[in-house]
Each structure stands twice: as structure tokens, then as C-alpha cells.
Amino acid sequence: MVYNTILVETKEKIATITINRPNKLNALNKETISELHEAFKSLEQSTETRVILLTGSGEKAFVAGADIAEFANFSEEDGAKLAAHGQELLFDFVQNLKKPVIAAINGFALGGGLELAMACHIRVASENAKMGLPEVTLGLLPGYGGTQRLPQLVGKGHAMEMILTAGMITADEALKIGLVNHVVTQAELLSFCEDIALKIVKNAPLAISKAINAINANFKDGENGFETEIKSFGQSFATKDFKEGTTAFLEKRKAQFTGE
Predict the structure, then answer these.
(1) CATH number of 6-201
(2) What gap in Å lies between CA 211 and CA 101, rounded to an integer?
């Protein structure tokens, strides 16, 4: 499929989505959010993809925020619909994707950009990356899950300070508070993320999918994460991957998982 605002490339079962609006510092607009949804949906269904990397074009920005011009004149009702639709179409969709998504944060990740990175399952930042949620400087608050995911990742105190001050933090500061998993040089960023992806690719796809779901269950109201884990653990025994994994272990060879 041909996209206007993103690029998609797949090799060795790893798909890379690049948000490609360099003149706008890869800011999210309606078209980009829609195209990202379609790309993630397609890759989730693809048997040729087991891990997805998400990054921005150029070396300045991952995603520098939302395209403010699109909603500057919105009403209260319009604003609520914007947040609800965006969360459903992209941010919640990414968080609950059955395949792992690694954010390669190659520069500014601000507002909706940081919210998108937080929806990913793993985050790696380049040394020049800066992150923040500046919405209160516009008379808004984060609307794509930022007030919920940031405290889950870094704790209430750090989240309160970041959101209420609208301040940016460096990659090293983000690493210190647990917002990102790793910090590497700009030149190493994609290859480092690919190395993580290759480690994931070797493992059982169905087990990975169920693990993502079980981990997310811990943060969902009305869902008991332990019960989800127990049910998923039991279901794993009915898969061909379980049989292959245990047989390979006993035969002292590498498993060849098919995702069945």
C-alpha cells in the first residue's frame, strides 16, 4: 500500500514504520494517524512480520507533537471526539497490538509524539532525544493517554512534574526515571532496536502476543491480570509452538516457531 505521510519497510520479519513529515517535524495530523492505523493493522495480520519498529524521518524529531492548526478552532464536543477517536484508532490500538512495537525515538518526542512512544511496548532513545508533554502551555492537557500512561511508566510524582511544568527532559533523564529502556547514539539507534527485535523474532509469536495481553491486563480496570495470565498460560499448552518449543529443548536444538 502507498502512503502519503509514512514509509513502511519489512526485512527479516521486522517491519519499520517511518513517520515521514520532516518539514513538520513529523507532527501527527488526521491523515498520519489514519495511515499509521492502517499500517499497524496490516502488519499485525501479516505472517511476514513479527516485530514492528516505529521511528521518525530525519534526525531532529520522532514526532514533535500534534498538528495544532487542525484543532485550534474546535468546540468542547469536537475536542472530546478528537481524543476519543485518536485513542481508539492509534494509541490504544498500538498498546494492545498482538505484535511487539519498539519506538526508536530519534529526536523530539513531544505531546502526541511522546504519547505515541508510550503506547509502544519498548522505547529506545537517541542521545539527542528530548521528551515532554507541553499541552498545558496551550490551555489543554494530554488527550491521547498521556495522563494515564506516563504515571504507569515513571510514577505519579515524575508524571505530575512533567505534565504540570510542561518541561522537556533529556534522553538520559528519561532513562533514569524509566520512561525509556535504553539510550544510544543517533547512528546506533535503528541497529540497536533491530537487535532487540531479532531476539524477539526467535521466540514463539503466540506466546509473545499472550504475554503482551497479560501485561496490559494489569493496567485495565475490571480485569484481573493474574487471571488473564493463568488463562493465557493454559491456552499456550494447546499450541503447536508449545510442542515445538518443548521438543526442541529436550532435543537440544533451536526451536522453529510458526505462530500456530
Answers:
(1) 3.90.226.10
(2) 13
Would you call 76 a catalytic residue per the annotation?
no
Asked if residues 210 and 232 have their Cβ atoms less than 8 Å apart, the reply is yes
Say whether 115 is catalytic.
Answer: yes
Distance CA 58, CA 245 (A): 40
- Eight-class DSSP state of 70: G
Domain edges within the chain: 6-201, 205-250
User: Is the pLDDT reported for residue 181 higher than 90?
Assistant: yes
pLDDT tens figures, 35-90: 999 999 999 999 999 999 999 999 899 999 888 888 888 899 999 999 999 999 99
CA angle 83, 123, 85 (to 5 degrees): 15
Of the candidates 44, 135, 223, 229, the residue annotated as catalytic is 135
Cell numbers found for residue 20: 515521514
Could you say which of 44, 115, 194, 227 is catalytic? 115
Query: Hey, what long-range contacts does 22-26 have (CB within 8 A, 24 or more apart)?
Result: 22/57, 22/58, 22/60, 22/61, 24/64, 24/67, 25/56, 25/60, 25/61, 25/63, 25/64, 25/65, 25/107, 25/108, 26/56, 26/57, 26/58, 26/61, 26/62, 26/63, 26/64, 26/113
**Where are the extended beta strands (E) located within the chain?**
6-11, 14-19, 51-56, 61-63, 101-105, 108-110, 122-126, 130-132, 169-170, 182-184
Helix ranges, 96-145 (H): 112-119
- Decide the pairing of beta strands 130-132 and 169-170: antiparallel
Tell me the whole-structure pTM to 2 decimals: 0.95
